[in-house]
């Protein structure tokens, strides 16, 4: 606080103003030559002003940085010395007054003004103000008997009262300045503390992200291996009891994979690490594809799945991220089908409401009470699943819907009541709707999905597969799985081992590999060397920059853990 007050006091010094007033006063003193006393007084005021300039120049720079207490005490004494010189100089201005002279009143008024101004500017401490006031009062009172021989005592009392009032006002101002400085220092401390807390929170968030990235990569590998091994085991001959056990293992592995992927996706969305890749999307065709994708699931649960697109949007396009929008709609459809009764119906709608494209999912389930509408969007909240039945999910679907919609700048609303089903609406931003093109009518016609081969493994039989994987557990799971499909598998743990291998038909490669090059660089080079081969990245990598680089290279990527059926059909598609 002491240094702050000294710093403010030094910055407020105006020695030039005091000297200028002294010159003007001397010039107005008489019309003739200056008396010797006036010349000496003006010289003293000039020396005092030069001392003030020097004091301000030296200590303004020194007080800009923290100083030890000894240096601050030295600065305070220098301030007292300078204040005393100014007070003595202006106090001696009373020596210019003479009995019966008209300029006496002017000299007194200027003196009072200088005292008031000094009290306003001086904030270097009570000692500085007290000493300066006492010296100025004594020096000015010294010349009063000469100027007012009959009333000098009366004027001296009035002068004393004036100095007391000025000193009291200066002390109050000093207290206010000290309080303001304390508030500023407290504010700076709070800001610094806030910055430290923010940095700690950011560091904790970075540590959490790094941990999640490492943990997700390490945890995906065994889950991926479990799913592949169980799928490979399922292809071997076994009795009904053993096959039922394998089915349970496969179901548990898929449930674990879905839960893990949901947790990782929710973490990425909440952390703002999911990039938006917006593009024009033909709305009706895209909705028909999602309807077809969920048709088998709805049929298995004996639930009707219908699509209704308003006439105004039949040929419309929307500018959005189809991947994120698919996550929103798929999670809503999953819940709608899951909680609809057998024989019920789920309706997908697309309408234009107040200029915004609004997608809706209606179901005929048990409904949600109004007081619980906000609660259902919280993670791990399942109102109709008190026993935590895994068959009904883990309660992350609607949390992902809300976070993904926020990334898309869309708005999710819920209309539901107990026993009357639920209606979720997703309103896209107002600028998402694009004008239809001339060929939209033709492009909107989406036929039935291409029938999957009843035995997709036949197209893989005899194919030469290069597996580049350094994780032993995943390797031990992929080798028997691929061999059970009739493929000729060659395994390389290190990318440098690939150069000695002959040309292959398929390359299945991880991203994190030993050595300086990763799987993206290696696979790009191998596909250039083998023009007839097809490549696929299968990785537990979650870094958005790495995934974007794979996409920019035009490489197909499946995140671990991969559903073996999805991996099988993907490889089958690559062989066509």
From TrEMBL:
<dbReference type="Pfam" id="PF00072">
    <property type="entry name" value="Response_reg"/>
</dbReference>
<feature type="modified residue" description="4-aspartylphosphate">
    <location>
        <position position="510"/>
    </location>
</feature>
<dbReference type="InterPro" id="IPR003661">
    <property type="entry name" value="HisK_dim/P_dom"/>
</dbReference>
<keyword id="KW-0418">Kinase</keyword>
<dbReference type="InterPro" id="IPR036097">
    <property type="entry name" value="HisK_dim/P_sf"/>
</dbReference>
<dbReference type="Pfam" id="PF02518">
    <property type="entry name" value="HATPase_c"/>
</dbReference>
<keyword id="KW-1133">Transmembrane helix</keyword>
<feature type="transmembrane region" description="Helical">
    <location>
        <begin position="12"/>
        <end position="29"/>
    </location>
</feature>
<dbReference type="GO" id="GO:0000155">
    <property type="term" value="F:phosphorelay sensor kinase activity"/>
</dbReference>
<keyword id="KW-0472">Membrane</keyword>
<dbReference type="GO" id="GO:0005886">
    <property type="term" value="C:plasma membrane"/>
</dbReference>
<dbReference type="GO" id="GO:0009927">
    <property type="term" value="F:histidine phosphotransfer kinase activity"/>
</dbReference>
<keyword id="KW-0808">Transferase</keyword>
<protein>
    <recommendedName>
        <fullName>histidine kinase</fullName>
        <ecNumber>2.7.13.3</ecNumber>
    </recommendedName>
</protein>
<feature type="domain" description="Response regulatory">
    <location>
        <begin position="464"/>
        <end position="575"/>
    </location>
</feature>
<feature type="coiled-coil region">
    <location>
        <begin position="177"/>
        <end position="207"/>
    </location>
</feature>
<feature type="transmembrane region" description="Helical">
    <location>
        <begin position="41"/>
        <end position="59"/>
    </location>
</feature>
<keyword id="KW-0597">Phosphoprotein</keyword>
<dbReference type="InterPro" id="IPR003594">
    <property type="entry name" value="HATPase_dom"/>
</dbReference>
<keyword id="KW-0175">Coiled coil</keyword>
<feature type="transmembrane region" description="Helical">
    <location>
        <begin position="109"/>
        <end position="140"/>
    </location>
</feature>
<feature type="transmembrane region" description="Helical">
    <location>
        <begin position="152"/>
        <end position="170"/>
    </location>
</feature>
<dbReference type="InterPro" id="IPR005467">
    <property type="entry name" value="His_kinase_dom"/>
</dbReference>
<dbReference type="InterPro" id="IPR036890">
    <property type="entry name" value="HATPase_C_sf"/>
</dbReference>
<dbReference type="InterPro" id="IPR004358">
    <property type="entry name" value="Sig_transdc_His_kin-like_C"/>
</dbReference>
<dbReference type="InterPro" id="IPR001789">
    <property type="entry name" value="Sig_transdc_resp-reg_receiver"/>
</dbReference>
<dbReference type="Pfam" id="PF00512">
    <property type="entry name" value="HisKA"/>
</dbReference>
<feature type="transmembrane region" description="Helical">
    <location>
        <begin position="79"/>
        <end position="97"/>
    </location>
</feature>
<feature type="domain" description="Histidine kinase">
    <location>
        <begin position="214"/>
        <end position="432"/>
    </location>
</feature>
<dbReference type="InterPro" id="IPR011006">
    <property type="entry name" value="CheY-like_superfamily"/>
</dbReference>
<keyword id="KW-0812">Transmembrane</keyword>
